[in-house]
Amino acid sequence: MDLTGEPTLEQLLAMLATVPERRVGYDRSLFKHWVDADGDGCDTRREVLIDEAVVPPTVGGGCSLFGGSWLSLYDGLTFSDPIGMDIDHVVALGEAWDSGAYAWTPERRERFANDLDVSWALIAVSAGSNRSKSDKDPADWLPPFATDRCPFVSAWIAVKVRWELAVDDRERIALASLAVECPEARMPIVPAG
User: Fold this and answer.
1) Distance, CA of 54 to CA of 76 (rounded, Å)
2) What confidence tens digit (pLDDT) does each residue in 114-160 have?
3) Structural domain includes residue 73
4) CB 162 within 8 A of CB 154
5) For residues 172 and 13, is the Cβ–Cβ distance under 8 A?
6) 186 - beta bridge partners?
7) Angle at 113 between CA 111 and CA 116, to 5 degrees
């Protein structure tokens, strides 16, 4: 299989191991998140909000954000105040834990929780849509708008490949079906290291 360039979702899915989920011992606090990894005064949450703003906000002291507007990719809602936005881990922390992160070091979990190295691991969405998704995988939740499903599934699979996470049986079946519905979708292989 040639995986140079940007493979199809089916090719990426074939790279993932199928393993039953393991929720034992999960606690969200095991993933230190919203850190200021680059020391510029803006934590991960604010970095995503700045990067994804439709109208850029003014960045004040302490990385406070003024003005700007955002579009929630899961439900099409627009916001002029970032307080209504959540930063979604496309593959939720609980799902990552279930899929192999339970065996990671605290440092690797922190890197996963604050992954700004690719644009598709963390996205700004409405708080309501993020809570609706929670830690569900694509077998149990998809964005309500059909046009948002291929980008979501593409990011999901790419994050799993990037971080060498597994899928469970139900998840693989759902993703295989969705990959067929997204034949033009391609994502890069960007290992987390």
Assistant:
1) 12
2) 999 999 999 999 999 999 999 999 999 999 988 999 999 999 999 99
3) yes
4) no
5) yes
6) 8
7) 70
Q: Is 49 part of a structural domain of the chain?
A: yes
What is the spatial distance between Cα 118 and Cα 115, in angstroms, rounded to a whole number?
7
33: its two tokens: 């998140």
Q: Give the orientation angle of helix 169-181 with respect to helix 149-162, to 10 degrees.
A: 130
Three-state secondary structure of the chain = CCCCCCCEHHHHHHCCCECCCCCCCCCHHHCCCCCCCCCCCCCHHHHHHHHHCCECCEECHHHCEECCEEECCCCCCEECCHHHEEEEECCCHHHHHHCCHHHCCHHHHHHHHCCCCCCCCEEEEEHHHHHHHCCCCCCCCCCCCHHHHHHHHHHHHHHHHHCCCCECHHHHHHHHHHHHHCCCCECCCCCCC
Bridge partner residues of 66 (DSSP): 58
pLDDT (0 to 100) of residue 193: 79
Is the whole model's pTM more than 0.85, yes or no?
A: yes
The token pair at 100 is 């192999």
CA-to-CA distance for 92 and 72, rounded, in angstroms? 17
Give the chain's domain count.
1
Residue 40 is part of which domain span?
9-181
Residue 167 covered by a domain: yes
